[in-house]
Amino acid sequence: MMPVMNERALVGLVARMRAARTDTGRCEVKACAGGLTRDIGRTLTGFANGCGGMLILGLDEKAGFTPAPGFNASAIQDALARVCCEELTPAVHPMMDVVLFEGAPVLVVTVDELRPRDKPCFVTRQGRYSGSYIRTGDGDRRLSAYEVDRLFEEREQPRHDCRIVGEAALSDLDEQALSGVIAREKSLHPRYFAQLDRDETLIKLGIAARDAAGDLRPTLGGLVALGLYPQEFYPALTIAFTSYYTSVRDEPAPDGRRFVDARTCVGGAAAMIEEAMSAVVRNMRTGARIDGLYRRDVPDYPLDAVREALVNAVMHRDYSPEALGSSIHVDLFPDRMEIVNPGGLFGTVTIDALGGEVPGSRRNSRLAAILESTPQETGGYLAENQGSGFRSMRRAFAEAGLPEPLPRNSISRFSLTLYGPDGVRPGDGLFRDAERSEPNPARPTGRGVVRMSGTYHLPTLMNALERDILEVVKREGEAGTVELVRETGRSRPTILKALKNLVAEGWLAPTSSVKNNPHLRYRAL
Predict the structure, then answer these.
(1) What confidence tens digit (pLDDT) does each residue in 22-80 have?
(2) First-to-final CA distance of the chain
(3) What pLDDT, on a 0 to 100 scale, did the predictor assign at position 523?
(4) Which is nearest to 419 in space by CA: 302, 499, 258?
(5) In which band, very low, low, confident or very high, does the pLDDT at 513 lie, cut at 50, 70 and 90?
(6) Predicted structure pTM score
(7) How does strand 508-510 pair with strand 521-524?
(8) Which residues contact 447 (CB under 8 A, 6 or more apart)?
């Protein structure tokens, strides 16, 4: 839920926009001195279909975000209420407050993100495909037909992974992997699967289904998980790996080459992920860490976490017909690795909910169940399917002293950026003083891959929320949880966790030694 705007918070927000000379992705400013603008409906849908946002009506952006002469807050509030209820489908119910700014009334309209089952919101007269918008940058973009369809798909469980692949046969499945899945399921559920023959077992597990002629054929989920070469039927269901020379994707090396290494990883899920892991290991650097008298090699990225990210990409990507022409991309740069898959987060899963205790919705529930029993070459099974993957990734990066992975989400794609020893997470620009030894000069290994030796001592990073909290405390002199919740829009438990980190790292100190004091305040050190 978007935070409620009061007069003091509005002053601070407008000051930031004046400094930037523009409004923002979460805040749109309109003068509306002569009435509502014609594009007000698309702005409302843009916020409702995205992450929510705020309209400030009665300020003139062209005049330096000053109060608009002749603005009638009461009349505009009534007109906007009519638009929200009568001109949008579904109706939007924002919170509207008249707030004084520099002696003049302005209307602050807080629009919350709609629930997934209610999206997309669209301008009724324009129709679903022409009238659905989303907020991007400081403007509104019309959603593509693909994005509109994905939003409607959120209203029920997709079954693309259950679709029969009519051109494929059971002989296109890896018999060894298939037998492994069946054996595991029989060991887990002996009372149920023991009485079924092989064909019925494959049907119950969603690995195969009977077509209109009664023939047993692989499902898309079965083919992705257990296929020998699914790319025969869907050439783009691959992992495309690229290793770049510099941190800028299109910047070539001095000799003109665009990348160090590139590989298209194919096969079923286990084989494809293993091939991608080999490409990552072959191209990333390995540092040395001294533990007492011993030296041990430390890769740039925790390999178990990288594998988990690849499994998640294969498991949760979009397998709708419109997305089958898109691959998963793994791009390795000197300072980071980016893993991108088609299709955004599904259902109840949000960026904030990633890594939570309660597993979220799964777009491909049948495929996820198959991968849970799919053996991998290195032992064990491909996926745990317990919803703890992102949490384990964060823990692995924290233990390695690396910045926290950064997820980004949109309707059409999800990306995860993993930062190596030379990476700085956006928004984490504040550092504690810490020693960092310089690596030895880079030397080529003969494959164009640069490996580094040296001990990495990374500084302690401050995330974006902790930075915002510190800024508020410094500005106010001291602050408590009530002010911090209001200023940041984050929940009290989240604020308390961030405060605990800031105190532990020596950025803040409590003003009282009384523990569990609900009125405890903090000051900057």
Answers:
(1) 887 788 999 999 999 999 999 999 999 988 899 999 999 999 999 999 999 999 999 99
(2) 32
(3) 86
(4) 302
(5) low
(6) 0.71
(7) antiparallel
(8) 261, 282
* The pLDDT value given to residue 5: 67
- CA–CA separation, 107 and 57 (whole Å): 5
Q: In this structure, what is the dihedral angle of CA atoms 305, 307, 309, 315, given to the nearest 10 degrees? A: -140
Q: Are 328 and 341 in contact (CB under 8 A)?
A: yes
Mean pLDDT of 353-378: 82
Find the range with the poorest average confidence among 37-46, 122-131, 152-161, 296-305: 296-305
The C-alpha atoms of residue 63 and residue 194 are separated, in whole angstroms, by 76
Residue range 442-492, pLDDT digits in tens = 333 332 333 333 333 333 345 678 878 888 888 778 888 888 888 877 888
**d(C-alpha 426, C-alpha 429), whole Å:** 7
Please compute the mean of the pLDDT values over residues 309-321 and round it to a whole number.
Answer: 96
Closest CA to 468 of 13, 113, 7, 55: 13
SS3 letters across 106-143: EEEEEECCCCHHHCCCEEHHHCCCCCEEEEECCEEEEC
CA–CA distance from 416 to each of 84, 135, 337, 410 (Å)?
35, 21, 8, 12
Contact indicator for 419, 402 with CB cutoff of 8 Å:
yes
Q: Are 134 and 47 in contact (CB under 8 A)?
A: no
**Residue found by looking up tokens 């438990």 in the block:** 493
At 208, is the pLDDT very low, low, confident or very high (cuts 50, 70, 90)?
A: very high
| DSSP 8-state code for residue 352 | T
Burial class from Cβ neighbours inside 10 Å (0-12, 13-18, 19+) for residue 134 reads buried
197-207 pLDDT per residue, tens: 999 999 999 99
Please give the pLDDT value at position 1. Answer: 53
Of all helices (H) and strands (E), which one includes residue 224?
A: helix 220-226
CB 258 within 8 A of CB 347: no
Strand positions, DSSP E, 186-237: 208-210, 216-218
Angstrom distance (rounded) from CA 489 to CA 225: 41
**Count of CB atoms situated within 10 Å of the CB of 515:** 7
Q: Is the per-residue pLDDT at 361 higher than 80? A: no
Token couple for 161:
């992974």
Q: Where are the alpha helices (DSSP H) in 477-515?
A: 481-488, 492-504
242-247-249-251 Cα dihedral, nearest 10 degrees: -120
pLDDT at 4: 57
The CA distances from residue 10 to 29, 72, 107, 202, 380, in Å, are 12, 19, 11, 60, 54
Tell whether omega for the bond before 90 is within 30 degrees of 0, i.e. cis. Answer: yes
**What is the DSSP annotation of 3-39?**
PPP-HHHHHHHHHHHHHHTS-BTTEEEE--TTS--TT
Rounding to the nearest 10 degrees, give the CA dihedral for residues 279, 281, 284, 287: -170
